[in-house]
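job 3f2a | input accepted
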Amino acid sequence: MKMTKFNNVDLGTYGKEYKKKRMIESIQGMSDREFEMVLKAVKAVEEMRENKYPFMGNFLQLEVVDSKEDFSCKMPISRDLLNPYRIVYGGITALFADMAMGWMLEELIEGKDKVVTLDMNVNYHNPGRGKELIAHCRLNHRAQNIMQASCRIENEKGEVIVTATATFLHLIRAPRVDRY
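job 3f2a | predicted structure (180 res):
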């Protein structure tokens, strides 16, 4: 791994102003492509403050789309998501499947309840190529606090890239009770 200004210094021991200065110096030396990636991350943080959706969902630019499925969402394919073979990293498509199924399930539950992934199986069918990926999700089964879902990820041409199944735990958040 190439050493950068940030690799060889423990920034945790320095103050916030020093970290900002080092970051500005690093940004000034970036190529346009590198700068666009940093800008994308900053935008994701800003959107996270507004929409309360996790950083990765904002970074991947997930967006709900209408479909005949229980739930569908899409994400653009950008250069920063491509591996050296110029296809979307397998981990990114797995993350997309997990986030899409989780998003669908959180739409089905109430209040401040959440869901967490217990296990997930991912099958890769075709390379992740194209302009965007679309995840089509379905709730397969629900029993008490366990939910099973499936996801099919296609590109804009309808080619199946990934299929995934997962089991989720429904975390029921009890209302806060004032003890005083």
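job 3f2a | The chain has a mean pLDDT of 88.
job 3f2a | closed
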